[in-house]
Amino acid sequence: MKWEDICDCVVEIRKNPSNSLVGTGFFISEDGLLLTCSHVITQAGGLKNIRIKGEKVEQVYIGGDNGDDFAILDFKGYKLGKVFLHPNLIESGKFKSFGFGDSECTSGSEKTGEIIGKNIFDKLGLRLKLSTLVDFQKFTGGESGSPIFSYIDGEYKVVGMLTSRYMQEGGLAISIQTIFDRLKTWLKVQDSLPLLDAKEDYLQSLNSYILNNHLDKYYNSVSCVQEDNLSYYSKLFTYICNSDNQVLNTDNLFEHISEKIISANSQLPLLIKGISGTGKTSFLNLLYWYFYEKSKNNKNNLEDNS
Question: Is the pTM of this model over 0.70?
Fold first, then answer.
């Protein structure tokens, strides 16, 4: 893949309605998944104000502004190229970057330099340290979210993403390895990252993952297309203990919890307690599935009545 083609996968991120530049992003899939910094979204005043090529985007994952300062957005209708990600930590060597921080270069600007090690910061966690070596190549604010490339095995691969400036002529980058690790924790994925290759609706993809890796694994009885599944799983759990330690019998535990959540203060947590091996994680997966099926059925009913 030529460097020019790689640069075509990098885009400006602008704020609506001012159209001011707030950052840079780059496509990590050919169907529109884009990686940038979460603080870029914060600076724009939220996802509702983010515009890429003048269009709105949808949220897939938005982390915090410190340790997991990255976000994955979905740009619907995109069918072009993507950059290649390198999942292993690279702590030294030459780098190349491309971003949109230079106001005098509206077509984007290229920076080169050295990866000079890593630091572990109290709030930020692990960051790669970058040095551009010369003054005229200093990183600027709009370049947050720029991909950091190393030349590996005969091609440019992204090893990190610029998150901030650092010292005089340098910057800090979150490594692709850190991003992968955070996503694996978030999705509870051990072997792969289906998120980065998702071709279907993201919620459906997440639902499929939970079914295949948790529900079917433990109960291997039914698939999600059968209407009686919810009643089947509801029979597995028929008792609930309230805050007064009273044990209550309910015909549909999931529906009982659903009603409580809807009527409760949004800050009230749902506590699932039990000693090791009692099925807390399995129950949480089932609860997720119930809410997913319920929301999907409600959506279908609304479409049928419209």
Answer: no
